[in-house]
Amino acid sequence: MNFEELMLRAVTNAETFKYTAKPNPVVGAILCNDNEIISEGYHEIYGSNHAEINAISNARKHQGKKFNNFSELALVCTLEPCSHVGKTGSCAEQIVETGIKKVVIGTIDPNPKVAGKGIEILKKNGIDVTVGIHEDIVKNQNKYFFFKHTNNKPYIILKIASSLDGKSHIESDERTIITSKASRYDVQILRASCDAILTGGNTLRNDNPRMNARVNFPTNQPKKILLTSKDCDKELNFFKDNDVKIYKNKDLTQIIKSFKDQDFCSILIEAGPKLANSFLELGLVDEIISYTSNNELGDKAVSWFKENNAIENYGFKLESSYKIDSDIKEVFKKNG
Ligand SMILES: NC(=O)c1ccc[n+]([C@@H]2O[C@H](COP(=O)([O-])OP(=O)(O)OC[C@H]3O[C@@H](n4cnc5c(N)ncnc54)[C@H](OP(=O)(O)O)[C@@H]3O)[C@@H](O)[C@H]2O)c1
């Protein structure tokens, strides 16, 4: 069998579970003999079986028909099988127990709890292991997971909705709606793709947002993070679902550092100009996603940035831009 093709198939099918596996990486596994695919398995839901274990149990249904012993089969998996016993058992040990003799891996797991230890278990038990098939594609598929374990902090995305004249909101007790319904649905998908959403005290009090992902497909809801020095009314919508972590400390660098041991790889900041600029000034943002409408809010509205303080001056460059109805969505990535 062509292992490169099988790896691409495993990556493609694993993508189906990107919203339900998070904050875990998506992983795919395929068992094959010389002529055909025997079974496939995916990490479908956070906390449930890993891909390799699903592939093995699906293969058992064909044992005695399509194959006799697991020693006849090769296992292709996108990410290194885990060595540690977490929510499920160690996959590497379970692979060894089946008697599989060949394992082909996309890339090493960057999680320090694994990081090569799974491969070591396989090799020590006489399994022929190949690593590095379509490595870049696997890393890109799980870019937040790789970023977190490489940089010891989650990937931080700042979302802003802006009027044509660069304004964030009109100062009042009411929420200012800036962009189209289609852009606002795009933000719901963005929320669904992140592991946590972070906001500040003023947005909480002025807008009373729920900030969950209201999408028409199954997703693990993002955790919620609130930065405020004040006591809050727990009847506000933000507290309606999922755990909310409240940080009273205003030292953003320290807060971000403390996230290295938390169970999330990506954070979406949805706050007003005060908190957004504080994060940007400290260089803590990795990506900005901006939605700009074609309407102006005028002089009474609050600007996102000071005149000489545009996104580019914070060291970001435009990576892509899309039209959504009458709005423009732009994605900016940090230079270098
Ligand atoms: N257009 C958009 O995309 C968008 C998105 C979200 C919000 N908004 C608008 O933004 C408005 C609020 O904006 P805002 O700029 O006044 O407030 P904000 O950025 O939402 O929140 C600022 C608050 O965050 C807390 N905070 C904690 N650490 C901080 C730090 N290091 N630096 C700055 N703030 C810190 C403080 O809360 P405490 O005072 O409670 O201690 C501070 O008052 C809302 O009315 C909303 O309509 C617009």
Question: How would you describe this protein?
Answer:
By secondary structure, the chain is of the alpha/beta class. Helices cover 28% and strands 25% of the residues. It contains eleven helices and 15 strands. The chain has helices at residues 3-14, 18-21, 51-60, 91-98, 117-124, 135-141, 143-151, 181-193, 201-207, 252-258, 273-281; strands at 28-32, 37-42, 74-79, 102-107, 128-131, 155-162, 167-170, 196-200, 223-227, 244-247, 266-269, 287-292, 301-303, 316-324, 327-334. The strands form three sheets. Strands 10-9-8-11-6-12-15-14 form an eight-stranded mixed beta sheet. A five-stranded mixed beta sheet has the order 2-1-3-4-5, with helices on both faces. The protein is elongated and about 75 Å long. The two termini are 40 Å apart. The structure holds NADP nicotinamide-adenine-dinucleotide phosphate. NADP nicotinamide-adenine-dinucleotide phosphate is lined by residues 160-161, 168-169, 175-176, 178, 200-203, 206-207, 227-230, 250, 252, 270-275, 278.
* Biggest sheet character: 8 strands, mixed
Structural class, by secondary structure, is alpha/beta
Question: Strand order across the biggest sheet?
Answer: 10-9-8-11-6-12-15-14
Residues in β-strands, percent? 15-25%
Number of helices: 11
Head-to-tail CA distance between termini = 40 Å
Helix fraction by DSSP (H/I, runs of at least 4)? 25-40%
Total strands: the figure is 15
Bound molecules: NADP nicotinamide-adenine-dinucleotide phosphate
Silhouette: elongated
Determine Rg (CA atoms, Å).
23 Å
Oligomeric assembly:
single chain
Q: Show unreliable segments.
A: none
Rounded mean pLDDT score: 93
